[in-house]
Amino acid sequence: MPPIPLQRTLAIGSLVYAATLWGLMWYPYRLLNEAGVGGIASSFFTYAVPLLALGWLHGRELHRARSRWMWLAALGLAAGWTNLAYVLAMLQGEVVRVLLLFFLSPLWTVLFARILLHEKLNRAGWAVMALAAGGAMVMLWQPNGDLPLPTNRAEWLALSAGVMFALSNVISRHLGGVTEGAKSVSIWAGVAVLTVIGLWRYPGEFDFIEQAGWGVWLLLLGVGLAIGSMTYAVQYGLARVPANQAIVIFLFELVVAAVAAYFLSMERMGVQEWVGAIMIVAASLFSGHMEDDQAKENPHA
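RE: above sequence
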């Protein structure tokens, strides 16, 4: 086993790796969508790849964790919706706005951590929550005075993905002692279950199979393998890096996606979006000061 400092460096590196890939992953999904592969179908195939290729390696780990199968199922469904909703939002909305709504996750993390991990907020924590909520209101504010709520399906999907991302991270922390492999299989299986339900409701998503060329199948395979590596990386990092620090590292995804969106899809943000973005990013950067010292010292009390 690597020394503790090296472990921490590897953990931080794994989170940066995952954030970088997720900041770019919207683009191959859009290419697949342009090739006729809908978001539900592409999610099904890309998550089936690691589930079938790697899932069998962790059978013993899942068996050892059988006493906690309900929490693993909850992790799978929460992370499953996170990933499916993220893909659908990226296909239907503006990349940076989707990510900004997604990265309200520190706000939801506080609520779930209070319930599941009994972590309490200090005064700085309440200020961070207010800053994050204020950033969302600025970004979503409507000139006609309507309520500052998401205005389209993509933004609602992004918001719900951020909520479920926070929940899945807290559940992952709650599952201390369960291996990263068992958690990863649960996540892949969760996406598979949700996408199967979606494909049952929208069977037309399979129509691309009749005309799909080798390029489409190779892209699906490549994205699936990348997702498998990212899932391992996230679970490895979350097990060794405090959740609040992990959220800050995940913000690197926003930077990567913003740069990629500018060059690959020519998307730009207005002043209102930039002000809201700065508030949300600032809230995430200060999220490490949100909990009482006692809660930090004993997060599973």
